[in-house]
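Q: Structure for this?
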Amino acid sequence: MVVLKENNLLNSLSQMGVGLGAKNQAFELLKGLEFPTRKTEDWRYTSVKKILKKKYVQFNEAEYVGLSNEIVPSLDAYNIVLVNGVYSKELSAVNFPDEIVVDTFPNAMEEHVSLIHSTFNGLAKNNEEVFTALNTSYFHEGVFIHIPKKVKLEKPIHVTHVNTKSNVVSNVRLLIVAGSFSEVSVVQSFSSVNAIECLTNSVTEVFVKENAKVVLDKVQSEEPKNNLICTVQVNQKANSTFKINTATVSGDFVRNGVNIDVDGENCTSEMNGLYMQKGIQHVDNHTKISHLKPNCISFELYKGVLRDKSTGVFNGKVIVEVDSQKIEAYQQNKNIILSREATMNAKPELEIFADDVKCSHGTTTGQFDEEAIFYLQTRGISKESAKNLLIEAFADEVIDKVDSEELRIWIKEKLG
Amino acid sequence: MLKVKNLHASVGDKEILKGLDIEVKAGEIHAIMGPNGSGKSTLSAVLAGRDEYEVTAGEVDYLGKELLELNPEERSWEGIFLAFQYPVEIPGVSNINFLKTAINERRKYFEQDPIAAKDFLKMVKEKSALVELNDKLKNRSVNVGFSGGEKKRNEIFQMAMLEPKLSILDETDSGLDIDALRIVAHGVNTLKSKDNATIIITHYQRLLDYIIPDFVHVLYDGRIIKTGGKELALELEDKGYDWLTKEEA
């Protein structure tokens, strides 16, 4: 730890788990990296000071004293549960279909060593992102999901991350490899039970092979006073479809990074996000889609409601490379601010190097439509209910992007 | 039912209503006519409780209550309905869901249980037939993608659902073709009873061919300058407003 400044976060960690060479490399890399400050372009509006200062405890064994199946939401899904960052065999499902692989890295290594070696860490930007390097160095056993060629999974796989002790630091790692012509939907939920001051640092790598379809729904409902860094790295091959929906319901400090490399023609990519903040919560959504090949289409819709003294950041980067003709890329960010003390920083960044493209972006930040509120009041809907009705309608546009009705209902319940 | 006495109202520094008096009894239909800028829309906005308008003097008694003390939703619960000249589009809020919320909030105000789903649906079916409102429109977002005529029919549909005691129709005839006008008028006439009253605010006489008023008032420069029977509307259609406003000047 030469360059990395002495801080409590690093002192809390110890290396564990699988002997993947990548871990050691990342550990070495980490020595040359610094935590971002407000001067780091990508972290201009998000200070990590607060989360670095805290003291954390790292768990290396699954701990589920007093835990029951109740912590696993009753979605009709194949469940994988990580408690305090550690894979819980007891709470995870055993009924996975035979044709797919869902296991920890150490277990999966026995049979799938070459597939893991050719994919794991292939998309992670360890040398650019200190939290990714940290994750690679310190994640526990991780979870490997492989959907082989042509397999279409009917039910989603639900990966639950739950912290049950205060001050826990969880580095959780997920690798999803969707073979050609396969289809899978994965839900990643982040929550906590009677735990505060936790930090979850999650990295998910997703390989979407030719003609595959992958949907990733992230539901973030940490109790207040918890912190979450969520990085998703995606690589899409030709004719594939990838969709990610991120719902941030709660959490004191939430940073979401979504990076998609569209590395094949005729792909469809979709990124949607909803954040509803109150108190002193801070939510930062950084997205980046790189169109590396022609004839693709991408959609992006992020919407937020900010109350009290909450702060929000949206930074959406769209890159269209010089030979990527016939790209259509649409981006929208809309915010409603309900308090004078709430702040939103929205920044679309378009870098278009091809000339035959259709790209649009728009960002709006405003208050309620007073006309609409008065109209609803004259029909006998109280001002308070009218506001709630309008917030619900505003949020529904994003929630409706979630394919599963069950999940839509679950997200709405969490939003209250 | 409604007694307005010496009502003065302003927007910013500009006084628009300058001592308006009107009395409406149950079972009556009143038409308020007047040239542009006379204060017609201000009157409807003030009665519905829009807060951009400041009432500087006067009083409004509605069924023994001081109307100006109530906020817009309370006025609605007490039976006042305003059909908007420009109905507001509310994306994402379904017409049906919004009406159900409205009805249940009023029921709550009167300490009644929420309406049963079955009764609500029956009511929707019955009342939407009255204004020939298409099934698809009922489930769509409030007024979004509605034509001008559909918006006005939707206003009357809402009025039918909320069963008001006093309805104020603000330029409901503007932008309506003759068929839509007939449908809207049919809705209003069917809803008429000896217990409720209607104020029709309009620029033109043509709606009054279909909804026959008991009284016609001429509003000019913030005051009622003439009141008569239904024949006054025809006279206005024929002679315009000049003969009255000149007299006033």
